[in-house]
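pasting for the record
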Amino acid sequence: MTTFALLLTALLFGGMTLFSFGFAAVLFAVYGPDDARRGIRNTFPHYYLWVIGTAAITGIVAYFVSTLAAWLLIGIALSTVYARQMLMLQINAATDAENAGRFKMLHGVSVVIQLAQIGMAGWALALIAA
């Protein structure tokens, strides 16, 4: 069970890190700003579903190895539900309304949540590996 929990947590940590630090940069490097923004906006709902599902399943598996790691992973899943169902909609509404100030503030909140989640996944990974 430890190996399975470790692999799933590594998948979550790596996927979140790659998406956060690589995906948007590649889109903006390959496509123009408008196409890159559209691509990012259309990708986030799928990305968030992947994080929710992966973190929830990983949390269940990790429970048999480390309860703290399991709760960290469940916290990632739950905070991603909020990001997908509420925060993303608010960000999109601010973009559609061309409200740059509100967009920047909400985007900043989403970045802080994402960085905290990556930290939580890394912490869970270390707990399972120990």
